[in-house]
Amino acid sequence: MRPEGDPVTLPLWRERSGWLFVLLAVAAIVAVLHLSGQIGGGVATRPHPVAPPADIVPDVLPMELAPVTEDDARAANAKIPLITKDFATPRPFVYAGDGDGRSRARDCLAAAMLYEAGDGSKGQFAVGQVIINRARHPAFPKSICGVVFQGSERSTGCQFTFTCDGALSRRYSDAAWTRAQVNADMMMSGLTYPAVGLATHYHTDWVRPYWSDSLEKIAIVDTHLFFRWPGYWGTPGAFRGAVSGSDGPVAKMAALSPLHALALGVAPTELAGVDANAALGEARVIAGAGEAAGRDTIYVALDRKAAPESFVTTALRLCGDKPYCKFMGWTNPTLKPDSDAMSDMQRAAMTFSYLRDDKAGFEKALWNCSEYKRDDARQCMKR
């Protein structure tokens, strides 16, 4: 036995082998941690993204995904740090235009909100805020529809997958579409969704876009992750661009939005699959008699709160496949005629009319433009 406190002297070779063992153990631990970080296609710690130069507008990369499993993507996405420093909330946005341009923009925004987030307001508002953020940012198109359908002409270049993966061929219910339109209208009238800040990108947590490593993750809403550019292009100063107040038609919206179809010169009969019904109560059908046999006239009370383009789909639904159909609607139900006799007051108060005459090759929809402004004067009733 050695006296207590007496130091132990080890042979030199044993001392060196002890240090060698420690170094090997540390190296093994580091290797294990590194390998475990590779699971899921990610790394244990991700270097902070490099900010693009402040004097060069950053490129917008397509939504291309890394070939990883959903579980691996979730694991890798979870390792991306959530950046809370310099988090800024968006300013309210009010669409500058009105009439058809505004309605087309609303429908583009509503389609993105519904097809990207489903029928739930929380997710829809988050998606809508990203679209509005993009419209204000110089890296993106300067209109709502332009942002939504950017790159949609290419199967791998679209920014929002629903615009190029065939999702628009699937129809939601009338109620779901109307809710999305209402939510879109609120966002175009000043409503903001502060939770996603100035995010310009997002994706679900079960995919890994290649661009995610170059951006800062700043918000999580349910299963969606939201990102901004690091540096100047993710700060409020970059979101000062003017947004168009007159959105043009988009061909891919024609089957969903009558106003897009009409502006493109698409026959309203091609819109029969669009779900919309603005009729209130029972329609009154006046059947043609004698020489006018088969020339039916339909009188309808219309919902004043309904979107004006829904009057077209209401007319199409009620006219069915009749070769001749005259449809007339009033938002003031007290002025809807009870017979085929119509007073001057009732005629002046008419809100919408639709006439189809297949024999004459004629089909036209007209609005009372003192009640519903139209960008195209040819869609206005003559007064």
Defining key terms:
13% strand; 8 strands; five-stranded mixed beta sheet; three-stranded antiparallel beta sheet; disordered N terminus; alpha+beta; elongated; single chain; 383 residues
Cα distance spanning the termini: 118 Å
SSE sequence, one letter per element: HHHHHHEEEHEEHEHEE
Radius of gyration: 30 Å
Number of domains: 2
Order of strands, main sheet, comes to: 4-5-6-7-8
Major sheet characteristics: 5 strands, mixed
Global outline: elongated
Regions with little confidence, pLDDT below 50 for 5+ residues: 1-17, 29-44, 268-275
Q: Give me the count of strands.
A: 8
Mean pLDDT: 80
Amount of beta strand: 5-15%
Number of helices: 9
> What structural class do helix, strand and pairing data support?
alpha+beta
Architecture overview:
The chain has 383 residues and is α+β, with helices and mostly antiparallel strands. The protein has two domains: 70-253, no CATH class; 274-379. Helix content is 29%, strand content 13%. It is built from nine helices and eight strands. The chain has helices at 12-38, 70-78, 99-117, 121-136, 144-148, 174-187, 258-263, 310-319, 344-349, and strands at residues 201-204, 216-221, 224-228, 279-286, 296-302, 324-330, 352-357, 362-367. A five-stranded mixed beta sheet has the order 4-5-6-7-8, covered by helices on one side. Strands 1-3-2 form a three-stranded antiparallel beta sheet, covered by helices on one side. Helix 8 (310-319) links the parallel strand 5 (296-302) and strand 6 (324-330). Helix 3 (99-117) packs across helix 6. The longest helix has 27 residues, at 12-38. It starts with 11 loop residues before the first helix and ends in a 16-residue tail after the last strand. Mean pLDDT is 80; it is low at 1-17, 29-44 and 268-275.
